[in-house]
Amino acid sequence: MGRHSFYFAESGFDVCSVDLSKSSIELIQRTAKEQGMKVKAIVSDMTDLPFGDAEFDCVICFHTIYHSDFKGRKRLVK
Hints:
With 78 residues, the protein is α+β, with helices and mostly antiparallel strands. The protein has one domain (3-76): Vaccinia Virus protein VP39 (Rossmann fold, 3-Layer(aba) Sandwich), CATH 3.40.50. The protein is 37% helix and 13% strand. It is built from three helices and two strands; from the N terminus they run αβαβα. It has helices at 3-10, 22-35, 70-76; strands spanning 15-19, 39-43. It has a two-stranded parallel ribbon. β1 (15-19), α2 (22-35) and β2 (39-43) form a beta-alpha-beta unit. It starts with a helix and ends with a helix.
């Protein structure tokens, strides 16, 4: 869990991981702390993300993008 988040965090990016699974988010938080990486990790439903408009420069999504509509996806990216 979180391997892509860790890769980008190690590469110097600000990272925010989102998952519906609380246990997955806890694992990401624990691993990031153990490795000394800064990764924001939150539990959230893909259809109701708690972010403002244009909050991200880039969004990377694996196996979940089809759960949101185009307007919802477009709203998050600058």
